[in-house]
Amino acid sequence: MHKTGTTALQKFFCLNQAVLAENGVWYPQAGRGRNTLAHHDIANSLKGPPFPLRAPAKSDREYLQEIQDCFNAFPEVLLSSEIFMRFVPAFKDHLSLDLPMLDKLRLTADVVKVIIYLRRQDEYLESFYAQEIQHGLDTSFSDFVSQRTPDYFQLCTQLAGYFGKSNVTVRVYDSKQFSRGSIFSDFLSVLDIELTDSFTIPAEDVNRSLMPEEREFSMLINALDLSLDERLRFNEPLLKLSQKRRAVRGRGETTTALFSAFERAALLRECSAANRRVATEFLGREGPGDLLFQADPEGITPATEVYSGLGKEALVDIIGYLQSSYPELFRLLSAGIERGLLSRDTAARKVARKLREVM
User: Are both 174 and 323 inside the same structural domain?
Assistant: First the structure.
């Protein structure tokens, strides 16, 4: 699933391709594309168009043949891509994909095993929302939550129904529950491989994130009448600005919460029964409470304050940063505002007026 250490794991697989191979596991280049860590192209080729960010370089038939060729030299082939989750109906993806669309992939091997990490729903939704904004999302957080809150038991049951329950391994994305304290040792333990000094550990902060102010500004950009490619051009400058401000403040991604304490507790109560069923039926745990994340919903509160919104001063600072450091993007922003003012879309006009007031 998204936001469960996938980028760090994929970096780990790439850095340790040779060591994994010595242990009989191959992490293929096929489907990873140029400078890509994950097998998104394989998943996308099976999904088919549309391809919002990048079309796969080859057909599904070519990728699947490359996977089969890997089995000539290695007993196990490891694939990793968050896009595979979009085939699971319980993931609630708007593309309406289904697991039988993976039939071609399943035929490449004698057995297909799924390793899935689950993150506590409140943390998952906050983090996933921030990521999707960088991909063009302009939905409010409350709407996002109502559309995306995952039922982990239904999700795991659907995977088990397609691949077989014995072929689905559920792990918990929680440092306190990782085998030997790290996600790398935890993942390797599923493969019956020990994390030794021969493995290279990736540097921290593999996956950069926007600070709350830049995140909300990005959302304003997404509401303007700009193409997806134009909107995505703002990501790198805003990430750099976030890094600068994070270095000054010494603050991380979760310094401000999107859920209030009441909303967080209510969500976790709602998810508790399904989480318990995952824990008992897929992890063999017994006992009181939410056994999956071993947490009491009433005892969980945000680590810091709830995000209060993008103020005028912060908005002026971000626009000034773009004007001085990225004049081409500032001109694109200005053009987007002008188009937004004339748009038939109410949200685009509202955002354009808000930005125009501080330009």
Answer: no
